[in-house]
Amino acid sequence: MNSETSAVANSTLMLLLCGTVIVIVAVQAVIFLVRANKEAGNLGISKEIRKKVIVNAGLFSILPSLPIVIILAVLLPVLGQYLPWLRLSVIGSAMYENMAADITVKTFGLSGVADSGMTPSIFLSVAWVMTLGVILYPVANIVFLKSYTGGIRKAQSKGGFLHVGVPSMFVGLMGVYAGPYVVNFKNPTGITTVVVAGVLVFAFDAIAKKSGVGWLKDFSFPLAMVAGMASAILFNWVFFA
């Protein structure tokens, strides 16, 4: 990111815009927590149990959030301090934000989101794509989710195409994301990362089942993701250093 783009991405205005939204969302979470705790008390759940649930939920939210923290660390140098912070705090996901930013900058002829040729206008285009694009999902859920899920469940109960069609579409979607890295033999680092992470996910699941350590299965994805990234660093150090 050049100095002109950095000045826009890290400006006070961006801090105010992003910070305001994050504060609103944080306040909503606190209100929900307080009301849920109060309602649990009204239902006769003891204070000790409620405290234990809150503490455990907080602790067990850390590792599953590692992929988001990793993507945040990747996006901060190229999109500034505030936009990645906003997008990974509200609605967005690690996969969507990185993909949306990368596709946008490539549309302008750059090599990727880390390209140093990003200008302020390209940065603003990235911001609009990342923020406006994700609005579709909550709006679609409000309008169509109830009728959509009802129709899917009804169709799946009858068997036929939709019984296997919906899972197949999900697998196909994952293939779109992973395919370019798995079959791109010009990028051995990407293949190594995918293979190591994939093998470790199954390994962690198997270990969890045999040992009875339930939390390991829940955290298999973020742990495998971190291990895959570590393998990429090691691979590059061994073969390209």
Write the layout of secondary structure elements.
Elements: H1 3-9, H2 12-42, H3 47-59, H4 66-79, H5 83-87, H6 94-107, H7 120-157, H8 161-182, H9 188-211, H10 214-218, H11 220-240
Overall average pLDDT: 83
> Looking at the structure, what is the overall shape?
globular
Spans of at least 5 consecutive residues with low confidence: none
- Treating each run of at least 4 consecutive H or I residues as one helix, how many helices? 11
Biggest β-sheet, characterized? none
The strand count comes to 0
Structural class: mainly alpha
Rounded to an integer in angstroms, the radius of gyration calculated over CA atoms is 21 Å
Q: Strand content of the residues, in percent?
A: under 5%
**Separation, N- and C-terminal Cα atoms:** 25 Å
Topology as H/E string? HHHHHHHHHHH
Helix content: over 70%
